[in-house]
Write a structure and sequence with these properties.
single chain; alpha/beta; Rossmann fold; 2 domains; 8-stranded mixed sheet
Length: 313
């Protein structure tokens, strides 16, 4: 029997890491695996299958021909290790209360969850102004339910897309799909948290001149645009941030002001942090809050409802 070489041990190590990461994601973020955008579950299944199959293949002794492929195998090991590390980093933040309760329908509104989006609809005749909101990166779309539910309760349809593997940039046509799915909507407010807000700014800048159902408002939570749209964007803008946010810091928000139209409005949640704009538990690096999550959420929701109502006139 030939000795097991370091390359084989490295391959087995990567395969074990792949299995462990998939199991860890399933244990800690199972609701997102089941209810999230389909590609994420598919990616986990493929990773698990390949990790098991490749790991089992290392039980066969290396032939001379296979030894000649060491360079290729080494490259594949490194690539696999990088892919597994990215998969581990993408482990999503899962919705917690009160977001879970906000996902329930009642006499005032209906909440419908689909593979690629969540739609909140008032039970009465909805306003012709609707909201399309992009969650932040690596978070369950349902984490935005509690903060956005008051908007739906005020009479507006709210669409929350589920980004593939939790990244809004990977679904560049999501807003156009929402426009097509809701032909009775004549005005849109697009919004987003963190990276989702960056994508929302792109959608607003691209669709504020649409002949039908244009974007008339841009709602930003702890976010800033990637490009200067101070002279091109015609939609109204509301930027809400936290005074203690360690990610979208007050300095970064201030630096972004020249990239937005002069009419943009900036609101600050005193004591608020990055994690206050969704309900998903602690978030590393979000900042140290001096306000309660409930108090921050109440302020954010109230400002959002007022902003959307202004867009309905």
């Amino acid at each position: 029997m030939s000795a097991v070489g370091p390359l084989t041990w490295a391959t087995r190590g990567v395969c074990v890491a792949g299995v462990r990461v998939v199991l860890w994601v399933c244990l800690t973020a199972w609701p997102v695996v089941v209810h999230g955008h389909p590609p994420y579950g598919v990616l986990l299944a493929i990773t698990l299958a390949l990790s098991v199959l490749v790991g089992l293949s290392t039980r066969r002794p290396l032939t001379e021909r296979r030894r000649r492929r060491r360079v290729l195998r080494t490259a594949l090991i490194l690539l696999s290790f990088l892919s597994i590390a990215v998969l581990a980093w993408l482990t999503p933040f899962v919705a917690v209360e009160p977001a879970l309760a906000a996902m329930n329908s009642d006499s005032t509104l209906t909440v419908a969850e689909y593979p690629t989006q969540i739609v909140m609809s008032p039970t009465g005749t909805p306003s012709t102004a609707a909201v399309f909101f992009q969650p932040g990166a690596r978070v369950d779309a349902g984490t935005s339910a509690a903060v956005l539910r008051p908007i739906a309760a005020a009479g507006h349809i709210v669409v929350i897309p589920k980004g593939p593997i939790g990244i809004a940039f990977l679904a560049p046509t999501a807003f156009e799909s929402a426009q097509a799915a809701h032909p009775d909507v004549t005005r849109w407010v697009v919004g987003g948290h963190s990276l989702g807000g960056t994508v929302a700014a792109i959608d607003a800048n691209n669709h504020d001149h649409d002949a039908t159902a244009p974007v008339v408002g841009l709602l930003r939570y702890a976010s800033y645009p990637a490009t200067d749209m101070s002279s091109s964007l015609t939609a109204a803008v509301l930027s809400i941030s936290g005074s203690e946010d360690a990610l979208a810091t007050p300095a970064r928000i201030a630096a972004s002001k020249p990239t937005l139209p002069p009419s943009a409005t900036f609101a600050v949640v005193v004591g608020g942090v990055h994690a206050h704009f969704g309900d998903h538990g602690p978030q590393p690096g979000a900042g140290t809050p001096t306000a309660t999550h409930d108090a921050a959420r109440t302020q954010i929701s109230a400002a959002s409802v007022a902003f959307v109502a202004a867009s309905d006139r």
